[in-house]
Amino acid sequence: MATIIYGVSGEGSGHSTRALVAGRHLVESGHRVKIVTYQRGIMNLQPHFDVFETEGLHIASVDNKVNVLKTIKENVKKLPHGTQRLKALRSEVFEAIEPDCVITDFEPMTAYLAAHYKLPCISLDNQHRMRYMEYPYPPNTSKDRLVTENVIRAMVPWPHVSLVVSFYAGKPKNDHTFIMPPILREDMYGMQARNDGHVLVYMTSVYDSLLELLKRFKRETFYVYGAKREGKDENVIYKPFSRDGFLDDLISCKAVMATAGFTLTSESLYLGKPYLAMPLRGQYEQMLNAYLLADVLGFGKNQVEPLTEQAIAEFLYRIPEYREALTGYEHQDNSKIKAKLDELLADDCKLLKEFHRKKLDS
C-alpha cells in the first residue's frame, strides 16, 4: 500500500468535498493519506483525516465580480506566513513520512514539492479541463482562456497523470489525461430528487442587487444561502450555513440560481435541477461552466451580464423546458474515478510510476 500526500485547495468547498470522497476511498483501500490544505479544506477534512494546515490563495469578489486589487492585497499579506508553512511542509511532511506519490487538487505547494523530490504526481481536479481537454468555449474569451491555462500550468506544472472531472465529456489532449464524471458526495446517491416549489439561491459574496430583485416575484419562494443573514423578508428566506440543510434544500428545490461553481453545477445537473448560472465576472472557469451548462447542453440560462428582473422571469418561465432537457443527462456515480485510482496505485504504484518515468524521459 502507498503513502500518499494529498494537497487540496481550500478555496470554496468543492475541492474538499471531492477530496473527502477520494481520500476516504484511499484510506479504505489500505493507503496512508496525509492531507495538506487550508481555509474551508481544514473545516471539511480535519475531522476525517490526518491534516497539515498550509497557506493558500484567495479570490476576493464584490457584487458577483472578481476584485483584482482586493485579491492581490489579501494574498500579499499571506506571503510571510506562506513561506514559513512551505518550510514546515518540507520538513514535517515530505521529509518525515517519505511519500510514494502526491495527489493534488489544485494545491500548488504539494505539486511543486512533488517535482522537487521527483515524486509521481496525480492532478485530480476540474481545472485541468482547461489545459488537457478539448471543449467549446465562450465567444470572445480567447485571451481569458490562454491566461487561465497559464495559471493552471503555474499552479500544477508537471502532473504525470491528470484525472479530469467534468460534466462535459470532451476529448483528452494526451495519453496521460483521463476524463471522469464529476465526483459527488456519497450521500447524494440513492436520494430521490423532489420538487417542493422553492428556488434555491446560493451566493459566494453578498449580492444586494439580486436580493432586491427576488422580492419582486411574489409568487415564488426563494431559499437564500450565503447572504450573511438569517430570517424572512417577504418571499425571501435567508438560511444559515448548514451542509445537511443545504443538501436537503437542493434535493427538494424546483430550480437553482447561483454562481457557476463546478461542484454545485454538477450536483444540480445530477439531480435534474434547472440552473440560472450567474458566473463570477472576471473568472474564466465560471464563465466556461455557465456556457457549457446553458449554451451547449441546454440545461439552464447563462446570465453573463448583471442580473435583471426580465432575465429571472425568462428563466422561471422556461423551467419546464430545461427540466425536459435534463432528462438526457447521463447519471454516473463515483465508481469510475475510484477504479482509476486503484489501477494507478496497485502493485506499489506500478502504473503511476510508468507514467512518471515516461514524463522524465520525454
Could you characterize the architecture of this molecule?
The protein has a seven-stranded parallel beta sheet, sandwiched between helices. A seven-stranded mixed beta sheet has the order 12-13-11-10-14-15-16, with helices on both faces. A two-stranded antiparallel ribbon has the order 4-5. The chain is globular and about 60 Å long. With 362 residues, the chain is α/β, with parallel strands linked by helices. The chain has two domains: 3-183 and 333-361, Glycogen Phosphorylase B (Rossmann fold, 3-Layer(aba) Sandwich), CATH 3.40.50.2000; 190-326, 3-Layer(aba) Sandwich (Rossmann fold). Mean pLDDT is 90; it is low at 58-79. It has 14 helices and 16 strands. It has helices at residues 14-28, 40-45, 68-76, 79-97, 108-116, 129-132, 142-155, 208-214, 243-252, 262-270, 284-296, 309-317, 319-326, 335-361; strands at residues 3-8, 32-37, 50-53, 61-62, 65-66, 101-105, 121-125, 161-165, 177-180, 199-202, 222-225, 231-233, 236-239, 255-258, 275-277, 300-302. It starts with a strand and ends with a helix.
Rg, Å, rounded? 21 Å
Annotated CATH topology of the largest domain:
Rossmann fold
The CATH architecture of the largest domain can be named as 3-Layer(aba) Sandwich
User: Low-confidence spans: pLDDT under 50, at least 5 residues?
Assistant: 58-79
Output the helix-strand order: EHEHEEEHHEHEHHEEEHEEEHEHEHEHHH
Class of the largest domain, according to the CATH hierarchy?
Alpha Beta
Number of helices: 14
Structural class: alpha/beta
The N- to C-terminal Cα distance equals 28 Å
Strand arrangement within the widest β-sheet reads 3-2-1-6-7-8-9
Please give the largest β-sheet. Answer: 7 strands, parallel
Strand content: 15-25%
**Counted beta strands:** 16
Number of domains: 2
| Average pLDDT over all residues | 90
* Overall helicity: 40-55%
